[in-house]
Design goal:
By secondary structure, the protein is mainly α. Helix 3 packs antiparallel against helix 6.
Length: about 170
């Protein structure tokens, strides 16, 4: 029974409620460091990513595993795992963006290690609870990691004010 409770605890780390609290906390931290652009990217990545995950689920429409009785009930499609994808999007995006405001290399590595560990535990819990095939979780991790990398690249784009000004008439 302790294993089931442990898996439920891990899977809860990928729930919409917990992810929202983590996003808000990370945004407040970025704001406190005056990293406003990073704060907005921390919000933008999961919002847009969740939309794409929902679209992918509806397109694939994969049925959930029936080999064992699941330990929790889920009603959406199985591929990709929303918990795996959304947790990778949130935790990894936050990690790579906050690493940009942290100066110490050991702290940067710690931030990344924690994000990868939490994302891994969430994905593994989805298989252990019987609600996903391993390929659902791998697909979610792949999408979420790719999404986080994309948003990490966005921080390098120049802001509008830094772009070449439009010519003036006259």
């Amino acid at each position: 029974i302790w294993l089931k409770q442990t898996m439920l605890d891990f899977t809860a780390l990928g729930s919409a409620t917990i992810l929202t609290l983590v996003i808000i906390g990370a945004m407040l931290f970025a704001f406190s460091r005056r990293a406003y652009r990073i704060a907005f990217l921390i919000a933008g990545a999961p919002i847009t990513g969740a939309i794409f995950v929902a679209l992918l689920k509806s397109q694939f429409g994969r049925v959930r595993p029936t080999l064992v009785d699941p330990l929790v009930v889920e009603h959406s499609a199985s591929f990709p795992s929303g918990h795996a994808a959304n947790s990778a999007i949130v935790y990894l995006t936050i990690a790579v963006l906050l690493m940009r405001v942290e100066r110490r290399p050991e702290t940067k590595l710690y931030i990344l290690f924690v994000a990868i560990t939490i994302t891994t535990l969430i994905g593994m819990s989805r298989v252990a609870l019987g609600v996903h095939w391993p390929s659902d979780v791998l697909g979610g991790w792949l999408f979420g990691t790719s999404w986080a990398c994309l948003w990490a690249l966005l921080i390098k784009l120049p802001v509008i004010e830094e772009a070449t000004p439009l010519p003036t008439s006259g």
